[in-house]
Amino acid sequence: MDADLMLAWMSETGEGDIWDLRQRVAWLARNADLNPQPFETGRWLRDMTALAHVEVDWVGGRWAMAPAVAVLLPSCGGTTVLAGCRRLGLVEELGDLLSVQKIPCAASDSRLKTPTQVYLQLDTINDLIEGLSTCGIDYGGRAAHHIADRLSPLRLGEPAAPPAYAAPVKHLQLDGALRFVDGRLTSQSGLCQISVQGRPSYLYRNGDEWFHTVHADGVLWALAENGIEVFRWRFERVDGDDEMGTLFVDQGAPLPPLQARALVLCSGQPPAFGELAKTAIYRNVSRSVADQVARSVRQRLTPIT
User: Fold this and answer.
1) Are 283 and 75 in contact, with CB atoms under 8 Å apart?
2) Which pLDDT score is estimated for 82?
3) Is the distance from CB of 270 to CB of 114 less than 8 angstroms?
4) For residue range 264-281, what is the model confidence (pLDDT) as tens digits?
5) In angstroms, how far apart are the furthest CA atoms of the chain?
6) Fold held by 231-304
7) DSSP assignment string, 38-91
8) Are 236 and 245 a contacting pair, CB within 8 Å?
9) Residue ranges covered by each domain of the chain
10) Nearest CA to 185 among 225, 236, 151?
């Protein structure tokens, strides 16, 4: 799929309806002899959000392009990655002023490709900022650290009524790969999936109380309540005051948008996925960012060798 073409169209359009965008993504994928399922176009849009290209209001059903910004990658010798709106001709303009390297996003074969990432460099940060400003691009600094510093602790939503007696319900099963299975909960707590106007909606049961939640928050809350740890970090090198390494998130556990963005903006690449173990792999992640992300979702960071 030509994701660069889709990003260009989105940048020119600016904003729109999520359902319409996903239909366009599916059409473009079919032109490349792919036949994406609906969940794949949703996952592609979440990847675009983690890459800081687009902001998404899933409840309101709207998307909007983020402003063009160059984000400094941690421990990468002053390299920045271009995120947000990418109007036609922008990369060529940048090439006249800065050192530009274009690298395809390293997505697995089972995921729709995201756009080529554009990495920018110059001798000094001040010269880099001046060149970016000439092209109308903001300098975002150490965005991964800034986002991680401001993450709010994971919480459930507002109190809710239990599912209607006759309504079809699925519940999250935690043994092995995370998946929803038909049937109501057999315990006093857990995450349920129901359908509201044809769309999945999520409720969390805690004893006799029920709460609204969203998919990622509900899954992570259930993992924490059951003492299941899914964050592992492997040390690779030291840079200044920080340790750098690779973060593994096991069992395909989803992350909220800001947590995913903090990790992705450490490398400028979406996570790789271990298909057998269903593990998300985030590279060039500093220990401090990994710790902050893990704590924000009630997880403990487990070092591995």
Assistant:
1) no
2) 96
3) yes
4) 999 999 988 876 667 899
5) 66
6) Translation Initiation Factor Eif1 (3.30.780)
7) HHHHHHHHHHHHHTTSEEEETTTTEEEEPPPEEEEPTTSTT-EEEES---TTHH
8) yes
9) 1-141, 159-225, 231-304
10) 225
